[in-house]
Specification:
2 copies of one chain form a homodimer. Chain A is an alpha/beta fold. Chain A has helices at about 1-5, 10-20, 25-40, 45-55, 70-80, 100-115, 130-135, 160-175, 190-205, 220-235, 245-260, 290-315, and strands at about 60-65, 90-95, 95, 100, 120, 140-145, 155-160, 180-185, 210-215, 240-245, 270, 285-290, 330, 335. The structure holds a DNA duplex (30 and 30 nucleotides).
DNA sequence: GTCCAAAACCTAAACGATTAGGTAGCCTGG
DNA sequence: CCAGGCTACCTAATCGTTTAGGTTTTGGAC
């Protein structure tokens, strides 16, 4: 296409400069070029640009939980923080049919390196090998709502303060006098699991409650089945069910409905992750609100900062290894939104409208 | 990196062939190459590959409704249909903070052409200029849950049979004897609007009902505000509210809750688009189920077929203009899922578990 | 009228892969 | 022993940009 633009009689150099807005081009030449380019319908070839410029103009978000409610807010936050800069955001889903696949993770990381990404935001703890691989290509990684792998403890991460959040959850449950807790939770691949579990366990101990932690795959159907099997085996209901995240909550609520269990009459319910419908389901749900959008925004800003530092260091002839500073590890406080499923406000079948 | 791989003493040609699995390379050379490549941590540069091969190995999905429930299912269907081939799926969101921005559409189309995409699936009716632009670069487009612009009527599209679906909705409402209908609907940019409105209007006429069509921006907050303003002005409730899609339903339900309106006692409610929580909200919702995943799968398959036809035609020296055939325009029947919000099964506050 | 710097422009070499077109060596059949 | 056809390999051009390093032109300042 460029040789077509050379129909202006000007050289490649001038055309390139004119189009990209650099200097060394007279105003008339520039206009001439822009005009012919428009007439000819010239659109640059990105592959060629990236090849020449050594790429690095998009950042990737790795996720395995597109169906989790917080995902949309998180993305909104990331997009928002990155819109002013002109990086492109691409999302890489490493789950097939909603369940995480490690081979997909490998393939995804491979592809991100092939595309010479400027940076990566990961919503899950990557494998040590993949983390190392990205590092060896000088691609900065920010973990969001997940921790870096043990082999890379200094990597940046932005998460909810899950430990204290879980203490809050536990404290509220204890206020209701509930002593028999069941925590339905996803696998440790999503590393928020650790702090959530620890907080809840500590809280149970502190309040003299028993807690059972029940692990399920990270999707609604597995949540349903796992919980059903557990209740079957246990023979009786716990006092309260804590759903570890949105898909598991969905599974649990479906089971509760199918079994005719009354919430919070027979079983109180508290869940992680606020979402759009939480105040509309029956009963309105008491949930932990994560402020996902802010987390996304923070993560994106952190990544941008690191990438810029990297670019600057390189310009000054330094190494382009990303530098991670301790303040890049951030925790965002969460908030407990109290509705009815925990037993507050008179439970499920009240005739008055539920609070938002 | 490639010259590093030349540390095997073999030429670029041999290395390239060895890595890409082509023939003309002895088994030992191939092993030698693979071994060194692995040792050196060689990862190909995608920009260079795309430049040389004239790209065309990813397809894009253009959407402005990531928060709409059907989006996830749609994507799942698309991913599913495209996984066997090794095209990459990238999604391009042309909405900022949930509302559609035409300039983003332009920029997105520009970028897709820059990347020389193999094909595009669009969940909204593109502007005539953008459609023409894509066509002029021989990039096939399949519209999904939306129609092609009037200037390009022969383009492929896969949609729900919205007209008949709306007749079904209307018929069911009529069975309840409701005569005063309110249709809360999104703007015509999402072209399913036309058939849905037409179906509902025809149905109202057929059953001797009055229908008011109320247009709102396509997000929950606008839906809430628009509906609130309308009810204010009208001074009384209609018999039934039909929510045109998921975000509008969300807005409507929030309003209903805030106003203390009883559903279906004071106002019956039917909504478009099945979603995960529809049977769990209060009351369980009667919705039109779109089979989004199948629509996605169908669209992806159609696109794949067209791209393959294109590649074949080009190989035979023909034109690479995509050929669209009439059977590429497909309609998928929908299904009405009857729960309680329409007035069936005894309404909202029943103590028995709601049907799934 | 010189000299010099700045502005405007050009030539040609990259970037990292693929591949058309060629060559050398070996085998096989006649 | 040679033609012919393999196989395994190589050289070098090519994709569409950007840009380092020149060259020419222009316009003052002296």
């Amino acid at each position: 296409m460029r040789d077509v633009s050379r129909a202006t009689g000007l050289s490649m150099f001038t055309v390139s400069r004119a189009l990209s807005g650099g200097d060394g081009v007279s105003t008339e030449s520039r206009e001439q070029v822009l005009k012919t380019a428009r007439e000819l319908g010239y659109i640059p070839n990105r592959a060629a640009q990236e090849l020449r410029r050594a790429s690095r103009d998009s950042v990737a978000v790795i996720t395995a939980s597109t169906s989790n409610s917080y995902y949309l807010d998180l993305m909104a936050g990331i997009q928002h923080a990155l819109r002013p800069s002109n990086w492109t955001v691409v999302v890489g889903d490493v789950a097939v049919d909603g369940i995480y696949d490690p081979r997909l993770e490998d393939r995804m990381v491979q592809r991100l390196i092939e595309s010479r990404m400027a940076g990566v935001i990961s919503t899950l703890t990557l494998t040590p090998e993949n983390t190392r691989l990205l590092a060896s290509w000088d691609i900065p990684v920010v973990f969001v709502d997940s921790s870096p792998p043990a082999s890379a403890r200094d990597f940046p991460s932005v998460t909810t303060d899950n430990y204290n959040a879980s203490l809050m959850v536990g404290a509220h449950i204890a206020e209701h006098g509930l002593k028999d807790w069941l925590f339905l939770v996803y696998p440790p691949k999503w590393s928020t699991r650790f702090d959530r579990e620890r907080g809840l366990r500590d809280s149970a101990k502190r309040h003299g409650a028993r807690i059972v932690v029940l692990e399920s795959e990270n999707d609604a159907v597995s949540g349903y089945d796992t919980l059903a099997a557990h209740l079957e085996a246990a023979g009786k209901l716990p006092d309260v069910l804590v759903a570890g995240n949105n898909p598991l909550l969905l599974g649990a609520l479906n089971l509760v409905r199918d079994r005719g269990i009354k919430v919070p009459g027979d079983l109180a319910l508290v869940a992680y992750d606020e979402f759009a419908w939480s105040s509309l389901v029956n009963p309105p749900l008491t949930v932990l609100d994560e402020r996902s959008e802010e987390i996304g925004r923070l993560a994106a800003r952190t990544l941008a900062e690191i990438i810029e530092g990297q670019a600057e260091a390189e310009k000054r002839g330094g190494s382009k290894t990303p530098v991670y500073r301790p303040e890049h590890q951030q925790q965002v406080p969460a908030q407990l939104v109290i509705r009815r499923s925990c037993g507050c406000h008179g439970g499920s079948f009240a005739a008055t409208p539920a609070p938002a």
